[in-house]
Amino acid sequence: MAFELARRGLNLVLVGRNPDKLSRVSSKMKAEVPGVELKTVVIDLSGDLSEGIRNLKDAIKEIDVGILVNNAGLSLIKPMFFHGIDEKIWGKIVRVNLVTPTVVTTTVLPSMLQRRRCAIINIGPGSTVILSFPLYAVYTGIKGTRTLHLVAAFYINILGNTYTPPLLSS
Q1: Where are its TM segments located (predicted)?
Q2: Cα separations (Å) of 63 from 5, 34, 68, 77?
């Protein structure tokens, strides 16, 4: 998705936990899309967000942010019954899929509010649009953005949506 946005003329701030991977993607993108402006920010989305969020604020300070794509996600390795899952695993899943995109969105939103025409896109699995998806209750419940869209659209022209490809490999 990032490469397609760059090809369409958007400059990007790429966020990830692995600085080497960010550097490789950034180099490849600059080679494939000459003229694209890129910044990278390292944030461990499952750990302490404070330093990474400070770095993100610095990275977007002078940028007119028009689109935010929350593309990180974490799920169970396999379907499991709710009562059989360790609390630490649930905590990590909730942190990556709910807490982190909420914190990132509230960090970027002030810049978007000034623009008054923006989009927030959350990437989530097809299971988020299926009302009953056994063994993935917490995961599917935290990936939607309909309420965010309604709140943002009420005040300003921000589109919030969830894109749901059937399978993701990351």
Answers
A1: 119-142
A2: 16, 19, 12, 37
Rounded distance between C-alpha atoms, residue 9 and residue 160, angstroms: 21
Helices (H), the chain: 2-7, 19-32, 50-60, 87-94, 100-115, 137-141, 146-155
Question: 113 or 142, which is more confident?
Answer: 113
Total-model pTM: 0.76
| Domain annotation covers residue 3 | no
- 155 has catalytic annotation: no
Q: Which of 136, 139, 155, 163 is catalytic?
A: 139
**Average pLDDT, rounded, for the chain:** 80
Whole-number Å distance between alpha carbons of 45 and 101: 9
Q: Which domain holds residue 120?
A: 72-163
- The verdict on residue 156 lying in a domain is yes
Q: Is residue 47 a part of any domain in this protein? A: no
Instruction: Write down the pLDDT at residue 139.
Output: 59
Question: pLDDT (tens digit, 9 = 90+) per residue, 102-117?
Answer: 889 889 988 888 777 7
Total domains in the chain come to 1
